[in-house]
Amino acid sequence: MSRDYDIIIIGTGPAGFSGAMQSSKFDKDVLVVEAHKKYLGGTWINTGTVPSKALREAAKNILDFNEQFGDHERKKPYERFQMGDLLQYKQEILEKENQKVKNDLIKNKVDVARGFGRLKDKHT
Question: What's the CATH number for 7-114?
Answer without folding.
Answer: 3.50.50.60
